[in-house]
TrEMBL record:
It catalyses: D-glucose 6-phosphate + UDP-alpha-D-glucose = alpha,alpha-trehalose 6-phosphate + UDP + H(+). Pathway: Glycan biosynthesis; trehalose biosynthesis. It comes from Hymenobacter guriensis. Homotetramer. Belongs to the glycosyltransferase 20 family. In the C-terminal section; belongs to the trehalose phosphatase family. Keywords: Glycosyltransferase, Transferase. This is Alpha,alpha-trehalose-phosphate synthase.
Amino acid sequence: MSRTIIVSNRLPTKVLRTEESLTFQASEGGLATGLGSIYRQEGNVWVGWPGLFVEDANEEAYVREQLRDDSMVPVFLTEPEIRDFYEGFSNSTLWPTFHYFSQYATYEQSHWEAYVAVNEKFCQAVLALAGLEDTIWVHDYQLLLLPAMLRQARPEATIGFFLHIPFPSYELIRVLPWRKELLEGMLGADLLGFHTFGYMRHFLSAVSQLLGFSSQNGQIETGARTVLVDAFPMGIDYERYVQAAASEAAVQHEAVYREALREVRVILSIDRLDYSKGIAQRLRAFELLIQRYPEWREQVSLIMVVVPSRDQVAQYAALKEEIDELVGRINAQYRTITWTPIHYFYRSFPLEELASLYRLAEVALVTPMRDGMNLVAKEFVASKADGRGVLILSERAGAARELSDALIINPTDTGQLAEAMHDALVMPEDEQQLRMGAMQALVRQYNVFAWAKLFMARLAYSKMKQHTLATE
Ligand code: F6P
């Protein structure tokens, strides 16, 4: 039987070290939560890093054993690899560049070498596992070189690649010293998927300008092979969020929060700690809201969840300090004995508690500076069973291409964002339901299962097309 081997840097389960033992927990981030629902189907396997440095062969064997039952195969990274590949090239070179934060990017040859070596490590792990009939589906910017490495070892293999973050304009890509190698790495796939048509267009432009390969209708001719490129906006496991929001646990948590908050209305913000998410700008906009509209003081609170992420990378640590400082200052300035403007949580929440926050919130702020898709926007929509609630969404999140019934804003325009919060808080209920209903229909239909099915069907088609061309 042929299987799909999913390959991503991070596994959907991460291992944590406590004083006495190793514990296993769900990973954060769109990729893990989004794909987490589909990989178990039909005997699929997921290859990736379990998120910590294991100290010896015993620990390695233990982790391998525990993950095996859940169809996961760990790739272990050494401490220098975590530093140079993960924190270095992946998150200090590619991440800032692809999110239009070039000013934060570093260009270290040693980080590049670690990136090549770790992609090679993943390649060996996949080759040890994949049968000739299996489909290999590689994910995200940490593994851009892997498709070509696999292709070299297995010229006939079926290889798909999906990028979960934006693909930026050629002007940003051209700055990277290793730009050609990165594009050539991606072109080892049969099919390359992006969240939006815009990202795909940027990729085709970079391939044409840097490698001289032309394309027509999303089909790149590399000379040796034809590679298909297409846009596949990723969805969520809609029913999972509907059920979580309807669960007894979510209802109970909501009741407890509601009682503690009394009559105060809630605006919600949930992100991983990341400068691309626009968290500091959002805080300033909330402050502006209560300055411009003092009538909202004591009436509205912002609940802000920031999930710890990449805090060993300097920019992330600095952002954490900035957020701590901003929240402290705003709360100190405006709070009263009975009202806290911002309830700030720096930790992750289990699904039922997240669901209760989605239930509680009248407004969700999803206002990244750049975001490949942003699944929080879709999770909020899926959780609003009564059709009420307003989504405020950045025009620079991939999700804005689909969720046009949100209040779409420019996240750098603090004034516009403050006005959007005000508009959301006074929006009549029938307008809320009209907008939310339209978004729910879309998010329900283009869910993560439909997304994966479409990608797989297109991948099978690209393979069939190549066979036809080869035999002509
Ligand atoms: O969706 C983008 C992404 O970088 C994923 O590749 C990743 O798993 C997730 O965000 C969380 O990031 P990290 O794995 O660095 O914690």
